[in-house]
Specification:
Layout (H helix, E strand, L loop, with lengths): L1 E9 L2 H11 L4 E3 L6 E4 L6 E6 H8 L14 E6 L3 H10 L3 E9 L4 E7 L5 E7 L13
Parallel strand pairs: 1-4, 5-8
Antiparallel strand pairs: 1-5, 2-3, 3-4, 6-7, 7-8
Keywords: Dioxygenase, Lyase, Oxidoreductase
Pfam families: Glyoxalase
InterPro entries: Glyas_Bleomycin-R_OHBP_Dase, Glyas_Fos-R_dOase_dom, VOC_core
Length: 141
């Protein structure tokens, strides 16, 4: 597993976008002030991402009154893995608390599964749906 993102789940997305882009001057890799999700280059192998809190809560269905779940998370630590399904099965077998089974998040471009650590922090394991960093396929003759 490789830590690929620290995702802050924010209340005021636009203000946070401007803070990281304009005040801290982190280059924007994806998103804009209206996209409700953005990624920033923080000069490391791990990216910083911000996400409107309600978007994540709706996606994981944690915007309910279930006392076992936080109403809306504040942070997600994201790990990239080679095989989401195999890694998720191993984590469950080893006792990890799964929030959401592996699922293709086509809008996010990843296959992901979600877990909670013993203190309730949200963890995501994922893998891109489309291979990245591969040269384009040459046209057929």
């Amino acid at each position: 597993m490789r830590c690929s993102y620290i995702r802050l789940l924010v209340n005021d997305y636009e203000a946070c976008f401007h803070f990281y882009a304009d005040i801290l001057k982190f280059p924007v890799l994806w998103g804009d002030e209206a996209s409700r999700y953005a990624e920033f280059d923080v000069e490391s192998g791990t990216r910083l991402a911000i996400n409107q809190r309600e978007v994540m809560a709706e996606a994981l269905e944690t915007d309910t009154a279930d006392p076992e779940l936080p109403h809306q998370d504040r942070l997600a630590v994201v790990f990239q893995v080679d095989d989401v399904d195999a890694t998720a099965a191993k984590l469950v077998a080893d006792g990890a608390r799964q929030v959401r089974a592996p699922y293709d998040w086509t809008a996010w471009g990843v296959r992901a599964a979600h877990f909670r650590d013993p203190d309730g922090y949200l963890l995501e394991i994922n893998h891109p749906l489309v291979p990245v960093d591969l040269p384009p396929t040459p046209p057929s003759p």
